[in-house]
Amino acid sequence: MKLKSTIIIVTIATTALTFSGCGANAMAAKDPSRIENPQNLKDVIAAEKKMAILAETDKKTTILMKSSVNDESIFYAQATNSLKAFDGYCKKQGGVTIYGKKAGDFLNNNTPAGISSAFLDTVLKDSYAEQGRRGMKSYLGWFECLSEVDGFRVDIKSSNLMSNPKYFTIHHDKAQEQGYAVLGFKNEFKEADISEIENYKFAPNVIAMMDGFCQAKGGDFFVQVPTTNGKALKAANFLMEFADPNSKKGYIVQKEGKMWCVDTENIKNEFTANVAPLKLQRSGSYRMTTNCDLIRGVNKSEMVRR
Known about the structure:
The protein contains 8 helices and 12 strands. It is an alpha+beta fold.
């Protein structure tokens, strides 16, 4: 049974998940009580209104910095807030904070007019001075926490934070607690029907959204596009590979492909999404409109799992 064809509009310059606000933060947290008392770095990220965890392994986490408008002062505020969050967690466990070259270059080159440079004049300069005292080479990424308790390194796919979306990859020194990825979507879609996905016509993170829906139904969500070499890849692995700073893979909306939700607890929740990009347009900002045709059911013979 074919569902109504859905046009998903992906705005390159404006990115937002479907939920926001304090209640949504609680949805995205594995344990809502940890919003006020974080026990690990993922709790800190879940508590941030503009950051979301998309994928995770024991020692690697993929996160998104969300923006709803294309405004340099908001971008700058989000960038500094992310650094402050990482900095605070690192120092709380007695670690040494290292601000990377990408973060320094962005902050130095993109401070909006009228915005105080106090952050640059204190925290950033102190970090560079500490690196000098320790005889350390500059970290080329975004942020590094040197800690025997829970050290980690954060990098960004692009040093240009004035573009969207903004994906970060965190490499952890020690194995991390699991169960945070797309948790907000999983909670949101727990009682939802497939037809409710059609309501999200503005869904830049359609893969994370559909992955959350599928996981909420006990299934697995797969992506198969040219950048996966014709193989069906689990959505979390696809997002993690795409967001890797060293990856040159394009996002799904730039290529034709298929996505599947399979092996759900109830077969009625399984579906196929045929994705085909339409013309890239410009009307104030670049937009990619993508036709995502949702069809109930899955032909597993089309899938070549990797």
